[in-house]
Amino acid sequence: MNNPYFKYVFSLLLFGSNGIMASLILLSSYEVVFWRTLIGSLFLLALFLMSGGKFKAIHHKKHWVYALISGAALGISWIFLFEAYSEIGVSVASLAYYCGPVLVIAISPFLFNERLTAARLAGLGAVMLGMLFVNGLGLLTNGLSWGLFCGLSSAVMYAVMIVFNKKASQVTGLENALYQLVMSFITVALYTFFRQGAPSLSVTEYLLPILIFGLVNTAVGCFLYFAAIDHLSAGSVSIIGYLEPLSALVFSAVFLHEQLTELQVIGAVLILSGAAFSELYREKPRVPVGHAV
User: What is the pTM of this model?
Assistant: First the structure.
């Protein structure tokens, strides 16, 4: 559990099951996000206080502000993503959403001085091709729509969240996850009250799935996620992040009995192999001329 890669992958698997959990809660997309962030925030706050945590980030005001911006971006991203789920379905929404990592990789050399190696570019290319195989038909069928706009908007906010979270290098671990979720909740709460007023009280009909969604998928998932990306490069976060839509596809097939086409299977293989290659392959350092190997 101390390995950041393990934490990150496990959090992605939890996030990959979000579609299944959301299907059990017959509320509007923003209400689902409202309740999951509220429960997740309360749980992480209680855990933080019981563990004797101290709010150290306030001594690094610039990094603290970065963390708050990152959390707000996360909340907005979830609003757009869940709206896209309801409009165009999980597969097409996931394809649009995961344009976000491409944006992060594209700007990481300018913001984080990370070099785009040939292996990373090749792995990213395989991942993107795999995503097209998995979801491209749905994208071509639906074209540009409100749902697709929401999906692409969630991708932009995903990129904003990653960038500002990386900049908030002095805000780490449980404290970071707490700021992210609390700020996400505040953002979603403001949107919910603006959209419809007080949230629906019919939440009691879906109490168990909402509690699981808030405590496990959101609180535990976010804690592991933000604890992991503190120790990973922006490129690694972006490329391995494609395991989330892949796991969502697999979970949908297993639990919702959705059929995988041959093209989707090929896409899944490309995603896994591309992500693995980009992480495991390392270029050998060049030896200067005249030096022995």
Answer: 0.80
